Amino acid sequence: MSQSHTEPHVSGQELRAALAGSGSSRPNPLMAPTEAPPSSDAPPSSDPSPSSDPPAWEWTSDEQVELDELRASNAELESQLEQLRGSAADARAREHEARTALRRLADARPWQRRAVVAELTGRGLL
Question: HEC string of the chain?
Answer without folding.
Answer: CCCCCCCCCCCHHHHHHHHHCCCCCCCCCCCCCCCCCCCCCCCCCCCCCCCCCCCCCCCCHHHHHHHHHHHHHHHHHHHHHHHHHHHHHHHHHHHHHHHHHHHHHHHCCCCCHHHHHHHHHHCCCC
